[in-house]
Write a structure and sequence with these properties.
There is one protein chain. This protein has 8 helices and 5 strands, in the order H-E-E-H-E-H-H-E-E-H-H-H-H. By secondary structure, it is an alpha/beta fold. The protein has one domain: Nucleotidyltransferase, domain 5, CATH 3.30.420. A 5-stranded mixed sheet has the order 3-2-1-4-5. It is globular.
Amino acid sequence: MPAEPSLRVETEMFASGAKLIIGIDEVGRGAMAGPVMVGVCAIGPSVTEFPTGLRDSKLVSEKKRTLLFPQVQAWAPTAVGEASALEIDELGITACLGLAAKRALALLHHGGVSVGEATVLLDGSHDWLNPALSSKLSVVTRVKADQDCAVVSAASIVAKVTRDELMVSLDREHPEYGWASNKGYGAAVHMEAIKTRGLTPYHRASWVK
């Protein structure tokens, strides 16, 4: 069973001198349509609890994610940035992860969060964030941080719910692709519609073979 999130890693980072921790996670990396989105969540050393039932967004139901979303927003400052399908075609997915994260961090900054003083806790093993930034941040990468670090689980929830809501709204424009259910990933109904109807402006054209 996947680990339940805790604040153990974050507490250790604060003990080592971190003033502020920003958890970061992405959604939509492997989709055929729609943007990639990056969620960010910032906490300080005074935070000792987190919303009950918080989990990595992939491990909870859509209904549960929707319930957790406002709880996470009330718990800590959050933001979501995105990079479009066109940008993904032009720049590549890794660069667009950084671009989306940069936009999310800018939103946090405009909301009063001292982003420049933060230590970033980034899900995964590769720092794709700093190459996108003009002013580098202290980044700690951690595999499965979205599962065992509460601040990253929270970032995953806000990113997933925000992207899912967008794909449901885009489904109303293009219902034949089934985005309300597949969220732009390569489900059979989606791939068949691409064959019969072609691409929309929301498709990552370079990904469709």
